[in-house]
TrEMBL record:
It comes from Fusarium oxysporum (strain Fo5176). Its EC number is 3.2.1.21. InterPro entries: GH, Glyco_hydro_1, NAD(P)-bd_dom_sf, SDR_fam. This is beta-glucosidase. It catalyses: Hydrolysis of terminal, non-reducing beta-D-glucosyl residues with release of beta-D-glucose. Gene3D superfamilies: Glycosidases, NAD(P)-binding Rossmann-like Domain. GO terms for molecular function: cellobiose glucosidase activity. Plays an important role in cellulose degradation. Shows hydrolytic activity against several glycosidic compounds. Keywords: Glycosidase, Hydrolase. PANTHER family: GLYCOSYL HYDROLASE, LP05116P. GO terms for biological process: cellulose catabolic process. It is an enzyme of class 3 (hydrolase). Belongs to the glycosyl hydrolase 1 family. It holds the Pfam family adh_short.
Amino acid sequence: MPSLPKDFQLGFATASYQIEGAVAEDGRGPSIWDVFCHLEPTRTKGANGDVACDHYHRLEEDLDLLKRYGSDMYRFSISWSRVIPLGGRDDPVNEAGIAFYNRVIDGCLKRGITPWVTLYHWDLPQGLHERYGGWLDVQESQKDFERYARLCYERFGDRVKHWITLNEPWIVSIFGYATGGNAPGRSSINPQSTEGDTSTEPWIVGKALIMSHARAVAAYNQDFRESQKGQIGISLNGDYYEPWDSSDPRDSEAAERRMQFHIGWFANPIFLGQDYPKCMRDQLKDRLPQFTSDELNLLRSAESDFYGMNYYTSQFARHKSSPAPDTDYIGNLDELQTNKAGDPVGLESGLHWLRSCPDLFRKHLTRVYRLYGKPIIITENGCPCPGEDKMAREESVQDEYRIKYFEDHLDAIGRSVGEDGTVVEGYFAWSLMDNLEWSDGYGPRFGVTFTDYETLERTPKKSALVLRHLVDHRKGKDRDQIEPTWYIKILKTPAIQRKANIEDRFPYLCISKTHELFAQKLDSLSIHFIKMVRILITGSADGLGLEAARQLVKRNHTVYLHARNAQRAAEAKANCPGAAGAFAADLTLVSETKRLAEEVNAVGTFDAIIHNAGMMAGPFRKTPDTGIPAQTAVNVLAPYILTCLLTPPKRLIYIASQLHAEADTSVKDIFWLERGDSQFQDFPAYCDSKLHVMLLANAVARRFNNTSVMSVHPGWVATKLGGEDGPDKLEDGVDTYVMLAEGDYDQSLTGRYFEPKRKLAEPTPQCSEVELQERVVDACERLVGLKLPGI
């Protein structure tokens, strides 16, 4: 698997108009998108951003999602008309708008998340568009943009250290002023547009955006960089193009020309301080504005720190022999999704134009870095799943296509970095949540969080829960997946079992709304909440431990495995796809058990720890460090050591056995140091060890006030430990493991004993005797010198 840099950062991205809502609240002025959506509703499928995702009122909830997803960074945009309602350099500032973005920034920092701020993500103040045509006035627009940028630096720059001037100026210029598909909808080739000139306006707007970027960067470099010590760049979109016929040099030229029209148009002046690409000058001639010498000098002095790359897909380019019309804006060629041989460029997503092409993404990264020489930040990358626009929530959250898309594109980054020498410093997934997809309305769902547009409830998709792990795994870091939110579990009551495929239709849904509302949609089914948890299961290379881990992973929990050596740990990880990691430690050795505790604590606090490791049959095998039988070392001493050293979890589960009833109740010489190997018998020793571990569990229950401590007899099942003749069902024991790990019981209970099928049972009376409990604790403490916390 290709590696990512150790300091590689993960984030999620949004844009103000797509998520904020509250368009007429707290002094915000209208933007061109407000007007476009309301005056041209047929061009946005009747959608608008009046409410959108209501992020303005749900800010804290959304920032909590970022924290739960393990985000290092959050890229969001400031609504220009929220902070300067009329937009101009002499127009008043809206302090309520400033206050909102202060809350966003401070909320990120409070959660350990680095804010990345985009100054312009397409929502130009309508006041500027009406006053002088907005971006069509090159001189006025750049002056007003500089003032707006300076205001943001002044008010937010003490905390914001990463600025993006513009998002996708190509889209602004072409979709807004050539095709008319986006606000302000100007075009001479779109029958729905009543104004515009496709042959000239996009190129005028492009220059206005380039010079506005330059002035904003120059202002930062001159007056703010030294004191604020931040970075600034721009986000450019652009596909990678391959020739339709790889043997035809005209198609190869067309592919390169298309990328120059798409990327070089902005990147050459901004990053190289040069004129537009020659192929653009050759085709567009005097319709492409000239740069003055002063403007070129400004561009060369306005040095950016990074190249923000928005990448989604790639295409094939086929040359045209006929002359380019004046309305052409792509370089006189055809864009195709299959080549001459009929091979598709990639696997289709939920949008016809977006195909997954990770190999071409790698070529794109390498090409851009070699051309422009700036560190790259992936400021947008993502996709909707096939058919997701028609999916209900329970289908959308199972977004395997999106996960594969993320995996493949992260690997492409790793290959470009590792093999081609490209510098890529971070990755923003688009998007944090489903939102208004501009002129496509609320159909395409790019989010890693499902948005219910009727209730505005957020539901983390599976991709949100695994992306952090995908990145960390490629960084060589076994960091756990972050707790996402509340999960619904459907109870297996007889009434539910009568409903066909109910668990296929509604599998462990992740929601943040009250279960009563959702229950109405499930025909009054009995449901309750299960919280995503982090779980450690010792001895989980096979048997009950491995199967319990598999079931918990299926339920989207973060599960760590354990085996006695590295080979067994690797096998366990392979046999439990989706497990967060696997520790290797021989629990017969005190030193290795202590090391395991250190490694587990380094991951963080666990919600549940299952002391599943156990030994039953076998001769007296003296451990080299303590001289006790390996059986008692694993069954009793190791759980004691781990309990002493691990950060106390919410739930501790000790694996007992019905055979504790066959034990010697005197509880003497529990480590066979007096009797020695001549008197050792493995079956009685096993029975004794199970009584001793139950006594230990009850001693812990008396000490750990904030931990629910349980013992469980999982049944005599056909496992390596239990042999082939076990009469009980494996799934009955595993079901109890899962219940206890999830906390799916009255957690005021502690010091109790469970049997298979979640049955609460009563152990032998000796288990409740405090004197016997303390004998076990004292024996362990004397042997290893560790004191059990608590009393």
